[in-house]
# Entry
Amino acid sequence: MSNHSGSYMLNEVLEIVMEKQIIKLEEKEKFRDFALELLELGRHYDCNDGEILDGIGEKIGLCYCCLEATEDIEDGICKKCRD
# Structure
């Protein structure tokens, strides 16, 4: 069973970082690295990668399925994972 509230909380953290421009969206590699660290933290608390990256994965170019960096993302999933 997944820790949905923990996943949503980490998603909110990413949203706040984006909104406050703590890490600017133009710094996608830096933002991805931060997001990947949050995903790793979330795994220790049984969080869901898709919920953490919901609405953000496409903006920063990070697939929630394979966690690869790419600009070709639809509904949070890259082309390779969609196929």
Q: What stands out?
A: The chain has one domain: 4-82. The beta strands are 73-74, 77-78. The chain has a mean pLDDT of 95. Residues 44 and 82 are 27 Å apart (CA to CA).
